[in-house]
C-alpha cells in the first residue's frame, strides 16, 4: 500500500467528491481571504522565507520523538479513517498523523508544504468511531484549504507583537492585524467543521462530537436539541451589555464557542449548498485559478450583511435597525442600556418596569 493509493478503504458506503475544491465547503469570509491569497503573485516565495523564522522543523522532530505516529501498526483504526477522509475529499497525499499524550481533547493541522495532523489521547478516548471520523475529516479539510498559511502568520505576528510591545503604537498596529486574523481563524474552523461533515456524512455524529468536547463523555446526561438551544439562548439573550461581553470573550479565542459551532454546522447541513455538494454539484480544484476575488469578497460581505439582518443578538439587531433608518442612535443606545422605553419614536424615554422594553426579545 502506498501513501497516495487508496487500496484499503473502509467498506461503508459514503459519497466521494473527486476533484472537489475547498471553496465548496469554506465559510464565505474564509473563502474570500483564501482566494485573495492564492491570487497574490510571489506570495508563496515570500511566505516560505517568513516561515523560516518559525519552529516548524522543530515541531516535526518533537512529534516524531515524543508522540506516536499513526500507521498500519500503530492506531490502525485512525490510519484507516485518515486514508478514508483523504479518499473522500480527494486529497492525493495523505498527511502524517500523530497521537500525543494529553488528557485535553484537541486536534490540529500544522505545516506548510507537508501538513501534519496531531490528535490528543484525550480526544481519542472521548469520541466514538463516527465522531472521530468527523474530527479527522475536519483536519483533512484544514489541509486541503491550506489553512496552515494563516495559522503560521498568526503565530508569527503574535510573537512579534510581544517583542515590540514597548514601541509606541507598534503593538497596536500588529494586534489589529492579529485580531483580524483571529476572526478569520474562527471562520476557518467553521469551514473545517463542514469538511468533517462531508467526510463523516453523519450530522448526528458531528453534533455528538462537539457536545462531548463541551461536556465530556456523558451522553446519557446530555441532549443535542437542548445543546443547540443553548446557542439560540446565547445569541438572543441579554442586552447590549451582554453583547459587548460576548465580543470581549470572543476576541482572544481562535475557535468559535462550541454551541455556536454546532448550530452553524446544523444550519449548513440543512442548506441547499450542502445538498448540492452531496448531489455531486460542487466547485472543482481545476477552476480555482479562475475564481474572481471580487465575487468572493462580495459573497463575504453579503454573508455578514445577512448575519446582521437575521441576528437576534441585541447589538447586531440595533445595528440592523439603524442601518434601516429605524431611529436615533444616541437615543436607542441610551434606551437599551438604561432599560428605558422609547417615547413616540423620538429617542427619549421613561423608566421601564420589569416588563419594559429595555431587554432583548426573542423576535428576529
From TrEMBL:
Cofactor: Zn(2+)
Coiled coil: none
Cofactor note: Binds 1 zinc ion per subunit.
One Pfam match: Peptidase_M48
Superkingdom to which the source organism belongs: Bacteria
Annotated GO biological process: proteolysis
Keyword terms: Cell membrane, Hydrolase, Membrane, Metal-binding, Metalloprotease, Protease, Transmembrane, Transmembrane helix, Zinc
Gene3D superfamilies linked: Metalloproteases ('zincins'), catalytic domain (3.30.2010.10)
GO molecular function: peptidase activity
Region described as Disordered: 276-295, 339-364
Compositionally biased region (Basic and acidic residues): 276-292
Residue span(s) of domain Peptidase M48: 74-268
Alphabetical list of InterPro entries matching this protein: HtpX_protease, Peptidase_M48
Residue ranges, compositional bias (Gly residues): 342-364
Record's keyword annotation contains Nucleotide-binding: no
Annotated family: Belongs to the peptidase M48 family.
Protein name: Zn-dependent protease with chaperone function
Organism: Streptomyces avidinii
Amino acid at each position: 500500500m502506498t501513501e497516495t493509493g487508496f487500496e484499503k478503504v473502509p467498506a461503508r458506503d459514503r459519497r466521494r467528491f473527486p476533484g472537489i475544491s475547498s471553496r465548496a465547503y469554506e465559510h464565505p469570509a474564509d473563502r474570500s481571504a483564501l482566494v485573495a491569497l492564492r491570487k497574490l503573485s510571489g506570495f508563496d516565495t515570500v511566505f516560505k522565507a517568513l516561515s523560516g523564522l518559525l519552529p516548524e522543523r522543530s515541531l516535526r522532530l518533537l512529534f516524531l520523538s515524543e508522540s506516536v505516529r499513526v500507521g498500519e501498526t500503530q492506531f490502525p483504526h485512525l490510519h484507516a479513517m485518515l486514508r478514508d477522509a483523504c479518499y473522500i475529499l480527494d486529497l492525493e497525499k495523505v498527511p502524517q498523523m500523530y497521537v500525543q499524550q494529553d488528557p485535553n481533547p484537541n486536534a490540529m493541522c500544522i505545516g506548510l508544504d507537508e501538513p501534519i495532523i496531531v490528535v490528543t489521547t484525550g480526544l481519542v478516548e472521548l469520541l466514538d468511531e463516527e465522531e472521530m471520523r468527523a474530527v479527522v475529516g475536519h483536519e483533512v479539510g484544514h489541509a486541503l484549504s491550506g489553512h496552515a498559511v494563516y495559522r503560521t502568520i498568526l503565530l508569527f505576528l503574535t510573537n512579534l507583537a510581544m517583542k515590540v510591545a514597548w514601541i509606541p503604537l507598534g503593538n497596536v498596529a500588529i494586534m489589529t492585524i492579529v485580531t483580524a486574523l483571529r476572526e478569520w481563524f474562527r471562520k476557518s474552523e467553521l469551514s473545517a467543521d463542514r469538511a468533517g461533515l462531508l467526510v463523516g456524512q453523519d450530522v448526528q455524529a458531528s453534533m455528538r462530537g462537539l457536545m462531548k468536547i463541551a461536556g465530556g463523555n456523558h451522553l446519557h446526561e446530555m441532549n443535542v436539541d437542548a445543546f443547540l438551544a443553548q446557542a439560540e439562548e446565547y445569541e438572543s439573550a441579554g442586552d447590549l451589555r451582554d453583547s459587548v461581553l460576548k465580543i470581549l470573550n470572543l476576541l482572544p479565542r481562535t475557535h468559535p464557542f462550541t454551541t455556536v459551532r454546532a448550530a452553524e454546522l446544523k444550519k449548513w447541513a440543512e442548506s441547499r449548498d450542502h445538498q448540492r455538494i452531496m448531489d455531486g454539484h460542487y466547485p472543482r480544484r481545476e477552476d480555482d485559478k479562475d475564481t474572481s476575488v471580487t465575487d468572493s469578497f462580495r459573497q463575504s460581505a453579503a454573508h455578514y450583511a445577512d448575519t446582521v439582518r437575521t441576528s437576534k443578538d441585541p447589538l447586531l439587531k440595533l445595528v440592523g435597525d439603524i442601518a434601516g433608518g429605524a431611529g436615533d442612535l444616541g437615543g436607542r443606545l441610551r434606551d437599551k442600556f438604561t432599560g428605558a422605553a422609547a417615547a413616540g419614536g423620538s429617542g427619549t424615554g421613561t423608566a421601564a418596569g420589569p416588563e419594559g422594553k429595555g431587554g432583548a426579545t426573542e423576535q428576529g
